[in-house]
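Sample intake sheet
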Amino acid sequence: MNTRFLVILLIILSLLLAGAFLINRLLQDTGYALLIWQGWQIQTTAGLWIILSLASVIGLAAFSLLLIWLFMLPYRIRAKAWGLQQHQSARALKLASLYQLLHAPQQAYNALQSIDRFEQNDILPLLRADYARQAGQSEQVAKELLQAPTDLSDIALLIAVKSGLRQGQVDTAVPQLKYLLTHTIPGESAAVVEAFHREVQWAWGQYALLQPEQALQDDWRPHTIERPILQTWLNQLAYRACSAGLSQQSLQALLALYETQPDTERDALAAEWLAIFLHYPAAYTMGLQLAHQSLQQRFTLPVLSGWLGLVVQYYQATQDSEAAMFAKFDFCLSDLMARYPAQPALLLSQAVLHQLQGNLQAVQHVLQQWPNTTLSKRFTLLWQALQQPTLYGQIGLTLIKVY
């Protein structure tokens, strides 16, 4: 039994007891009440007078409550309607967020459109514009951005840039992107400003994928590039170097970019840098130094593949004129084999070094250490690919993966 019910029961019992006490007193001595007003005279019992007085007070109180209820009725109706709008808006926003998580931007955009029927919110046009951008609807993006608030114009411009880049409209997006890279949102918290600049850099990364060589030569690119963006860009440049080749101007800009990178960033993206250096003799020495440093820290197949390709190209380009460098190759590989014994990729690499020196007997000895002929067959394909840097850049990593 809850407390509220006990309180109500106690009040009812108290009223019943008070009523019984009053009736008992009236029966013992009824008395009378006399009212004289403007020549009129009314006489009645005291009990009836008390009842009429109580009824008048109660009636007046009820009438007053009725007036208050009628006066407040429009406010209650509006409040209830507002609450319904809030519920419907929250439901539509939740549905839009769910669609976004499920990578369905078109459905998310449609869900947000329904909120306009319930309320006006400055951020909604920007949300709808971004969902339309992800759905590839450039016309809807432009339409929604026309409704964007002026105090969020930088966010609107960022969405427009990302939409333009998605549509391949690089010439239109570049001037806007330049502005955003040097602009700071006024009047926002440090966290918002940081998130804004991070998103602008991702937009630049999208541009760099569309124009990888031009991005190298631009003097307005970000001073620091986040690792995932730089990695994707370097992969695109490696593909370009492997297929069509980079211009001399682009190569010089690339080497200048490499020199500005901290050692930790170079090491983290060593495989990507090596994939590019493989195609340019001027970068062989730089790439080998990077590979040695990286392999001393940890053994990874992508870095080993890049190192092996550079070793072959460097050795053939120098015609074995630097015995000390080859000794360094051998030492690096021996160190790896001591730390990671029985690795088939390392055995293949050792066989390649012996092949470079013309020691065919040592090659056979290394390959026979594997329990079947898989390693020998793979070595034949690997050696053929190593003679063609373009082909090796495409399939080298696959060839040294032996399980």
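Comment: Residues 262 and 268 are 10 Å apart (CA to CA). The mean pLDDT is 84.
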